[in-house]
Every structure is written in C-alpha cells, then in structure tokens.
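Appendix B. Chain record.
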Amino acid sequence: MKKILKNKLRWFGCCAMLFAAGGAFAENYEIGQVWTYKTRPQETNSTLTILRVDNTSKLGPVIFVGLKDVRVLHPSGKVLSSMSPLPFTKDALDQSVVKLVGKTDKLMSSDFGYQKWKEAQFAGKKPPTYAKPVAEIVRALENGYIGIPAQP
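Structure tokens predicted for this chain:
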C-alpha cells in the first residue's frame, strides 16, 4: 500500500512539473515583434507583426497582428498581400507562431480597426476576436471574400 501511494505521489509530482513547464512556453507578445507562423502552403514567406496588445477583453489578452506576404483573393480580383489589424486570442497565436525573427518600429496601420473593436466592446457587444490559428482565419476570410462558405 505504501509503495502504491509513493508511486501515485511521484506520478502526481511529474504531472505538476509538466503542467508548470507547459505554461512557461507560452509566448509574451510585444508590439513590433515579427514572427514566422504556420502559414498556408502558398504563403511560406508570410510573417506576422504584433501591432497592439489589449488586456481589457473578457477573453484575456487580445493581440492585434498584421500579416505580410499573404495571397488573399479579394472580390475585386486583386490579390491582397497584407492584412491588418486582425485580433487574435493569445491561445490562437500560441498555436500559430513558430519563431521570433525580429522587431520593427514600422507598424502597419491599426488605428481604425482597433477603434471599431474597442467601440463594440464599450457598447457591450462581443467584438470579433479570432480564436483559431492564423492560417485557418486567413483561409476563412478569403473564402468569405470570394463567396465560398468557410471550410471548418
């Protein structure tokens, strides 16, 4: 009986250490960081830049990003090579980012989109915030642009 209890305590201790270590890997996002991320196959050179971090949402931190070197077909027929600002939950970004590749002070414009997001929040509405990985959202946005229902 003592041996079983000892093994259970050892197992519990290992699980607790793994759980604590998992939290240590979560990213701390800062304005201006440039990251590679898990892209769609046609956008392997795309990067995301952290434009804003908002800590006022009930969802926890919301990170607004700008994407460069994407290839999103717009209804006008043009191909968009950049998008901003896109609001993501921290968990969604943690699932998406691969490597921090630099920092920049040349940020894409985010004032108008961020202001609209904040207005919805202040009005008691749930402002749109993406909780899925970046590549999934880019695909869904493109599908919405060209009139095809977003794929799950």
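Further analysis of this model is presented in Appendix C.
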